[in-house]
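Feature request, filed as a ticket because there's no other form

It would be nice if the structure record came with a short human-readable summary line next to the tokens. Right now we just get the raw output. Example of a typical job, pasted below so the devs can see what we mean:
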Amino acid sequence: MANLTGTIKGLYPETLSPEQLEKLRGFKIQTRITNEKYLRTHKEVELLISGFFREMFSKRPENIPEFAADYFTDPRLPNKIHMQLIKEKKAA
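Raw output as currently delivered:
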């Protein structure tokens, strides 16, 4: 087997310099913080995901990718999420 180290240098953490590793670590931390802030301010994402899993576990489809495609392309989905957001807002 050919040695590919020269052609893929920089793709694996063990080939990064200490400075690059520190930048990567900082980037990962910042990305997690940004993602967490986004998820906390966009309740609809939580409703989409929890609704999907609730439906999937209750219906137990054989073809999960097909079920997911149908679920997320349902033209009624935006209205369902909107109604859930209103309902939660009233309950708070």
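Something like this underneath would help us a lot:
Residues 23 and 42 are 28 Å apart (CA to CA).
The chain has a mean pLDDT of 87.
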